[in-house]
Write a structure and sequence with these properties.
This is Thiamine-phosphate pyrophosphorylase. By secondary structure, this protein is of the alpha/beta class. It has 13 helices and eight strands. The chain has two domains: 78 residues, no CATH class; 195 residues, Aldolase class I (TIM Barrel, Alpha-Beta Barrel), CATH 3.20.20.
Length: 298
């Protein structure tokens, strides 16, 4: 099949329902006239993928066609090598964390961190917002003390220098924070031994995150969320499913607007962790809500 329009229609017909509503080996660079690349780019754009994700997918489709000798419109690309992801073992890799992080509570301060850790939540994140450097250092230290003796794994959002100084288990960075690191800062972070989680919002950002070999990949926002302004539309469970297949060699965290009612469909994609914020901090009985959500993850 070499006709661009025909191939694009074939891709759309096979996958439209899935996306309704929502230092590696280099990937071969297609020519602007390559029919597989052009068809995949056209189809992925029509499926609602933003420009840099549609481009990433089109390159992967082209790479797979070169590797297998077939465009395979019925099969969504999910082989890491076609996206240029690192091979195993990775040349770049942060310290490992559990494959399944379980319920992942994102919390506003150290008091909440301690409360949910004592409730048995296995993974907690301190997302403390402040411009006061002294207050940040104190809150990070208090959060680390709050989880002692609980068995909870504590990730610190953004404040990686304070996390290193205080001896945290890990840190979590967004894409902009990751991109802002200099090569020397990234080396410092890697040498610290901290685990690194990275937020991603689509294919291009997952490829970017893979280049540093994080400890886990967070994928979202799965559903609409009012907690932060998102540059991309909600990904939906269909996209989450194909993301988990591509990033299957990483621990994965689904995040963004996920309620208890949505846990079964989210977990059915294969993710090993679900992150929540409002489902705990806005709950009438946060401890009871945590217990119920952890039960859903069994």
């Amino acid at each position: 099949m070499h006709d661009t329009t025909t191939l694009a229609h074939a891709i759309l017909s096979h996958h439209a329902a899935t996306f309704a509503g929502f230092a590696p080996e280099p990937v071969p660079t297609p020519t602007s006239q390559d029919p597989v690349y052009l068809a995949a780019l056209q189809a992925c754009s029509q499926l609602g993928f933003i420009a840099h994700d549609a481009e990433c997918l089109a390159r992967a489709w082209h790479a797979r066609a070169l590797r297998t000798g077939s465009a395979q419109p019925e099969q969504w690309p999910d082989e890491p090598q076609d996206f240029g992801l690192q091979g195993l073992p990775r040349a770049q890799q942060f310290a490992a964390c559990p494959e399944r992080l379980g319920l992942y509570a994102v919390l506003p301060d150290a008091q909440w961190v301690g409360r949910m850790a004592r409730a048995g939540v296995p993974t907690v994140q301190l997302r403390f917002k402040s411009d006061d450097a002294r207050a940040i250092r104190a809150e990070v230290q208090a959060a680390i003390e709050a989880v002692q003796g609980t068995g909870a794994l504590l990730f610190i959002n953004d404040h990686w220098r304070d996390a290193i100084d205080a001896g945290a288990y890990g840190i979590h960075l967004g894409q902009e924070d990751l991109d802002a690191l200099t090569a020397q800062e990234l080396q410092t972070l890697h040498r610290s031994g901290l685990r690194l989680g990275v937020s991603t919002h689509g294919y291009a950002e997952m490829v970017r995150a893979d280049a540093v070999g994080p400890s886990y990949i967070a994928m979202g926002a799965v559903f609409p969320t009012t907690l932060k302004k998102m540059a991309t539309a909600p990904q939906g469970v269909g996209r989450l499913g194909v993301y988990t297949r591509l990033m299957r060699h990483y621990p994965q965290v689904a995040i963004g607007g996920i309620s208890a009612e949505q846990f079964p469909t989210v977990l059915a994609t294969g993710v090993g962790s679900v992150a929540v914020v409002r489902a705990l901090v806005n709950a009438p009985d946060p401890e009871a809500s945590a217990a119920a959500l952890m039960a859903l993850m069994q």
